[in-house]
Fold this protein.
Amino acid sequence: MTDVKYIGMDVHQASISIAVLDGRGALLMQSTIRTHACTLREFLRGLEGTLYVTFEEGTWSAWLYDLLSPHVAQAIACDPRHNALLKSGNKSDKIDARRLAELLRAGMLKPVYHGQRNSHRLKELSRSYLTLVHDGTRVMNRIKAIYRSQGIRCAGQRVYSLRYRVNWLEQLREPGLRQRAAFLYQQLDGLQTLRKQARRALLAESRNHPAHRLLLSVPGLGLIRVALLLALIQTPHRFRSKRQLWAYAGLALVTRTSADYRLVRGSLERSRKPIAIRGLNQNHNHDLKEIFKSAALRACRLPGPWRDSFTKRVEHGMKPELARLTMARKIAALTLVLWKKGEHYNPEKLIMQAA
């Protein structure tokens, strides 16, 4: 164990605080270096033995992961939301770096997946597309907020249409407010143009991946959803089972239980009290959750076994939103299985059991 070293890094824009522990947990050294590729490589070359390094997920994590991975046995970008021990006691860069090294040595870190190099282009294109979609939604909400602030009803999509734009602007009597709405309309037009360009680039890159046609056969998954799935998941083998994918996509149930066993006639027996369900997990990928929920909504509207299963669940007393959630979990599980096996969707093999 003496030739193993655990390195914790607290990364900032100008500097990186580093703590190095040996296999027994003893502090070997602490140092502060410049945030620069050459400086990091030189520091690692000066260390002997098997190196394990960790740093928190953030702005610099993707660059650090690609930079350090060839020089260490394992590089872990950890989820800062799970590092509760860093929040207790005094706080400084050196203290945080040492605690990260201690958590790494104890195996208490939750790694963040950083994907494969051949998927970087698709991942960046998906980020561009999603950012433009979110920005466009914000601008549309601001436009409607202007009209609502003046007591003007603006339900639906007509308020954004170029054809009726002059009529809508004439309803704003105050010149400054009308000019503000005109600026927002120009911003929306620019975002919609960029969104179309980003969509074309995303779909073109998505077609180069072998799993594109395979995922396109899954009910409810269209071209955009398939492209985003390929970018967000990249490989299905990072999930051992469907329950791990459900948790990552925000479709897993959070349960609570306590005092699981009771003493009966001198022996322990498992308690029969029901498990308390506390809704869906909050820590998840929001874009991935939206993909599976919208795919379930589409699949439940089209004629076929998916709509029949949804209708039966509702008729048996299940709330529609819970029935759609069940369909979303089913689509997620089906996507994972088909992607791993490399098979296309076959409706004859589908068994509509509870997900």
Notes: Residues 310 and 323 are 6 Å apart (CA to CA). The beta strands are 4-11, 15-22, 27-34, 50-56, 74-78, 253-256, 261-264, 267-270, 276-280.
